[in-house]
């Protein structure tokens, strides 16, 4: 255990979050996403796991140390429901609440069509698979910067 570090963040996840740079994309995936095969194409190349957490719990822990990119509209994205791109299911609403709490304001995630999401995931820095069993529990978080003290 470390002081000030959310205990839900394991060593491998912390390593990757630290290694990522400004603008790099991180994928948080549900249990149905083809995480293993997709992760092999990423920059990191190996699948990371937070199996015992829902998507919202994992993202809440990640955002305790991970800044979102405030310079772009696609700072965070959600996989759209096939043929219902404007529908936002409960799992995605929970993640939006976690983002709002971490950021201190409401900025909605962008919707990403399912197959475009797969392509984005392959081009991402890394994939973290959660224990989320609800459908469409797949998200992208784009890393931002931490400004100087003053």
From TrEMBL:
Keywords: Isomerase. It catalyses: alpha-L-fucose = beta-L-fucose; beta-D-ribopyranose = beta-D-ribofuranose. InterPro entries: RbsD-like_sf (IPR023750), RbsD/FucU_mutarotase (IPR050443), RbsD_FucU (IPR007721). The keyword Isomerase applies. The keyword Mitochondrion does not apply. Pfam families: RbsD_FucU. This is RbsD/FucU family protein. The lineage of its organism: Bacteria, Pseudomonadati, Pseudomonadota, Alphaproteobacteria, Hyphomicrobiales.
């Amino acid at each position: 255990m470390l002081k000030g570090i959310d205990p839900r963040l394991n060593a491998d996840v912390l390593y990757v979050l630290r290694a990522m740079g400004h603008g790099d994309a991180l994928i948080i995936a549900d249990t149905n996403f083809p995480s293993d095969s997709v992760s092999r194409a990423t920059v990191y190349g190996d699948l990371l796991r937070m199996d015992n957490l829902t998507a919202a719990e994992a993202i809440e822990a990640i955002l305790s140390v991970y800044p979102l990119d405030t310079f772009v509209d696609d700072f965070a994205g959600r996989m759209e429901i096939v043929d219902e791109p404007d529908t936002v299911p409960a799992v995605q609403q929970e993640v939006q609440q976690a983002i709002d709490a971490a950021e201190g304001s409401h900025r909605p995630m962008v919707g990403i069509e399912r197959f475009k999401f797969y392509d984005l995931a392959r081009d991402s820095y890394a994939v973290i698979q959660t224990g989320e069993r609800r459908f469409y529990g797949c998200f992208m978080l784009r890393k931002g910067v931490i400004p100087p003290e003053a």
